[in-house]
Amino acid sequence: MNDSANPTETTKHPWQKNGRLVAIGGAEDKESDLEILRRVLDLAPEGNRQVAVIATASGIPDEIYPIYEDVFSRIGAERMHRIDVRTREDAREEQHIETVKRCGTIFFTGGDQLRLTNILGGSPLLEAIRESHEKGAVVAGTSAGAAAMSTTMIYNGQAADALRKGAVRMSSGLGFVEDIIIDSHFLERGRFTRLMEVGATNPEYIGVGLGEDSAVIFHPGGVLEAIGSGHVIIVYSRDIQSSNVAELNDGEPVALEHVIMHALISGYGYDVPNQRYITATELAEMAGTNS
Length: 291
What we know:
By secondary structure, the protein is of the alpha/beta class. It is built from eight helices and 17 strands.
């Protein structure tokens, strides 16, 4: 797919600025083809191969930074900058803000999305990242870094029995994606019921479940493009026919009728405004039309 082209009309949606967003389900390949991370770097503005990595979500950032320094170096990054933010005071540091503004790629690692939002929420650094994204920088995140991209995010909820009222906990995210809830490690940790419970209580949200070594690119016009070796699952609840959720007490099981799911693999897509599955052939044709 031509990264400089939009795969659909150029109308922008609230969750899409001039730069691309890439949400990764976790455990992305860092050893062989590195398909997802190569694509992330290729989506950056032409001539800007500098990468800012933010490991705020991680409890072991000193172990995480060298891994990504090695990976981004191998795939052609000019330089990887460590945005070492561990406190809210760090998120006000002018050096971090200026570095982010220079980078064509801003990458959030995995860890704990609540730690990430607690430290970055409302900070000058987050505002600088949003401004860079508006100007064309790609913003990518893996695992917790992906889940935190949405305006509302999941931060807890056991997958084994999540289809009970109140079983999934949500909070404010970083605000790059509106009306979409992102869940990572989706198939590997059996998280289908988490997005179904979200849909029962918030039918206006579209759920995006990301398998490991899989990702979605948010393109202008409202098209999601799946990449990587795993699956991307779309959970659409706006057409649910009935549910008992309003009558339940917390912890009681939810009944739900007519949840629609789609499974995407690399090269396939989903048209969010028109609620439409896009085959690989059609997505390639759309990209060619807009090239």
